[in-house]
Write a structure and sequence with these properties.
Blueprint (H helix, E strand, L loop, with lengths): L3 E7 L16 E10 L2 E10 L4 E10 L4 E4 L2 E4 L4 E2 L5 E5 L2 E6 L2 E8 L2 E9 L4 E10 L2 E19 L2 E17 L13 H12 L8 E5 L6 E8 L4 E6 L9 E6 L3 E17 L2 E10 L3 E7 L4 E6 L5 E17 L2 E16 L5 E6 L2 E8 L2 E8 L4
Antiparallel strand pairs: 1-19, 2-3, 2-14, 3-4, 4-5, 4-6, 7-8, 8-9, 9-10, 10-11, 11-13, 12-13, 13-14, 15-25, 16-17, 16-24, 17-18, 18-19, 19-20, 20-21, 21-23, 22-23, 23-24, 25-26, 26-27
């Protein structure tokens, strides 16, 4: 098990005027997630200079009818997306977002669906990993606000509905490449050393199993959760070729944010275009243990990469349920789960050896899966 509380971040934290505005970097996005009535909304205004291109990710999930409305626009000319330097002042065709911490307004309009939303941050801003978060040999600044109050109107299915709900906001910017993830962008070695040292100082290493797979640190597991008691949670994990669970949570109880490294286990999943997508995940830490599970029809985004070795970037997102315990208190709620995977020319490969009254061995190659058990008395 890997888990220990790292820090308590007090509400009323810092804010810098530069956190809202646009930066001179390779990639940047402003993201909103919200649960409003029977709907879950996830959206991002994004640009990237590698292609270059602009993207508006916009998905509405009807939680009652299990319907996904994909309202996104991908691979547009980068100048379609207008952005301000010192505040959130974004426009993307008929959609826009404006404001400055802690108040924002957003308007989405596409394919006959219109969303107007007011956002008020009530949780403190947090930088994941405290400062720079390395990605391959690049890096980003990953800033999020774990809890916001939202209200507004949604026009959908020829009807207008007023709503109130809970939301999440993040702003990410930095220099990294999906086509050439090992291309060095800035001083990232020091960031890796700092992050690994922090993890090792708060981790108990276990060797109850050995697992090697094509999962790589250029993807991630992500979740934002809203619990019935009002708590919210950010969860992030970076997969590795060697199974070393590297997960972190930020748990907000309305007063403090607790940062904690956690262990995780994939309980169920699916193979999608040569990528393993976990759909049910168990997470265990010192203060928390929970299971999050996708429950709805997913939305899937795919991008073909220009690299010879790296083939596709897959983004698999879906609302779901979360349930478990925090400091001995039973908790449950709703969550938004997002899995990103970067696939190579070899597809999905896995070799797992674990002890379970003998050796359990699992081997997975594209179009081939082998599982067998060697009893204790033979060994």
């Amino acid at each position: 098990m890997r888990s220990v509380v790292l820090a308590i971040i007090l509400v009323g934290s810092f804010w810098n005027i530069g956190y809202d505005g646009s930066h001179n970097c390779i990639r940047e996005w402003w993201n909103i997630d919200a649960f409003i009535g029977n709907y879950s909304i996830t959206a991002s205004f994004e640009y990237e200079k590698e292609t270059p291109a602009a993207n508006l990710f916009l998905t509405v999930f009807d939680l009652n009818r299990n319907i996904v409305y994909n309202l996104s626009s991908y691979n547009d000319e980068i100048n379609v997306f207008k952005r301000g330097k010192y505040e959130v002042n974004l426009s993307y065709r008929d959609s826009w977002m404006r404001g400055a911490y802690p108040y924002y307004r957003v308007h989405f309009e596409n394919k006959g669906i219109i969303i107007d939303m007011n956002i008020r941050a009530i949780g403190p801003p947090v930088f994941v990993a405290g400062d720079i978060l390395p990605i391959g040999m690049g890096y980003c600044k990953y800033l999020f606000i774990p809890k916001c109050k939202v209200n507004g109107e949604i026009f959908i299915n020829n009807e207008t509905e007023k709503f109130e709900g809970i939301g999440y906001f993040e702003h990410v910017w930095g220099n990294w490449s999906y086509n050439k993830p090992l291309k060095k962008e800035g001083k990232v070695i020091g960031a890796y050393i700092k992050l690994i040292r922090k993890w090792l100082n708060n981790t108990e290493i276990s060797f109850d199993k050995i697992c090697i797979s094509s999962d790589n640190p250029f993807g991630y597991d992500w979740c934002w959760a809203v619990f019935e008691n009002g708590y919210t949670m950010f969860y992030g994990a970076i997969p590795f070729w060697l199974d070393i669970p590297f997960g972190i949570i930020y748990f907000y109880d309305g007063k403090n944010i607790v940062e904690e490294f956690v262990d995780y286990e994939y309980l169920n999943g699916t193979i999608y275009e040569n990528a393993y997508i976990p759909t049910k995940i168990r997470v265990v830490g010192k203060n928390i243990s929970f299971i999050m599970e996708m429950r709805n029809k997913p939305h899937i985004y795919k991008d073909n990469l220009s690299s010879f070795y790296w083939k596709k970037l897959i983004l698999y997102e879906c609302p779901g349920d979360i349930y478990g315990f925090y400091k001995g208190e039973e908790i449950k709620g709703k969550c938004e789960i997002e899995i990103e995977r970067q696939t190579s020319i070899f597809g999905y490969i896995l070799l797992k050896i674990e002890w379970n009254n003998g050796l359990e061995i699992t081997i997975i190659f594209p179009k081939l899966e082998i599982r067998f058990h060697i009893p204790t008395f033979i060994i």
